[in-house]
């Protein structure tokens, strides 16, 4: 069984769950895009938990500044903050082949990292706050207000069309990434 990191469990918490049950039978599904919401870069998550990764969800987000921190907006794989060339090389070297593309939700994920209360949820975990914030500053972009407007006026048919286009772009981007690393 492989427990997914979703957007609320830090790698240390997941490793503790695996150890408390059985590392022989319990591992992790690493949703690469979700690492950021629990104060980890994908590299940090991988370095902490790679020995337990059994399955991978390939997801990407564009990371925008918000008043309270950051907003994660779905995007096709390879068009967001995740360095998929690096991720795929690591997974290849480790022999992890069980992967799937997973698009993020249509609605944005807000991570209120500018509020002390957000960090308080992780007091028992040795967070590398300065390193994490440096990473955020490298990947964050100014918000494009047209994103929200476009989502609000999309019909159901337009949303479906958008979703299918994002899947197609993700597959094509993944093919290009694999050509580079293989």
Instruction: Sketch the major β-sheet.
Output: 4 strands, parallel
Structural class: alpha/beta
As a percent range, the share of strand residues is 15-25%
**Rg to the nearest angstrom?**
17 Å
Shape: globular
The end-to-end span amounts to: 29 Å
How many helical stretches?
7
Average pLDDT: 92
Brief overview, please?
The protein has 182 residues and is an alpha/beta fold. It is built from seven helices and seven strands, in the order βαβαβββαββαααα.
Descriptive overview:
The protein has 182 residues and is α/β, with parallel strands linked by helices. Helices cover 44% and strands 18% of the residues. The chain has one domain. It is built from seven helices and seven strands. Helix 3 (84-94) packs across helix 7. The mean pLDDT is 92.
Jot down its keywords.
182 residues, alpha/beta, four-stranded parallel sheet, 18% strand
Describe the protein's topology:
Blueprint: E1 2-4, H1 11-21, E2 27-31, H2 42-49, E3 53-58, E4 61-66, E5 69-74, H3 84-94, E6 99-101, E7 109-111, H4 116-120, H5 129-139, H6 146-153, H7 156-181
Parallel strand pairs: 1-2, 2-3, 3-6
Antiparallel strand pairs: 4-5, 5-7
Helix pairs in contact: 3-7
């Amino acid at each position: 069984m492989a427990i997914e990191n979703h957007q609320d469990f830090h790698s240390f918490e997941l490793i503790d769950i695996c150890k408390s049950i059985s590392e022989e039978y319990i591992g992790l599904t690493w949703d690469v895009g979700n690492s950021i919401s629990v104060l980890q870069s994908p590299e940090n998550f991988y370095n902490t938990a790679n020995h337990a990764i059994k399955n991978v969800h390939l997801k990407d987000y564009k990371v925008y500044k918000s008043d309270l921190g950051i907003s994660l907006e779905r995007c096709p794989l390879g068009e967001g903050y995740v360095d998929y060339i690096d991720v795929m090389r690591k997974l290849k070297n480790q022999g992890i082949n069980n992967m799937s593309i997973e698009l993020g939700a249509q609605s944005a994920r807000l991570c209120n990292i500018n509020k002390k209360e957000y960090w308080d949820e992780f007091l028992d975990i040795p967070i590398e706050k300065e390193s994490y914030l440096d990473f955020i500053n490298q990947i964050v972009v100014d918000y494009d207000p047209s994103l929200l407007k476009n989502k609000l006026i999309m019909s159901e048919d337009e949303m479906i069309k958008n979703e299918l286009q994002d899947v197609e772009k993700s597959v094509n981007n993944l093919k290009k990434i694999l050509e580079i690393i293989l």
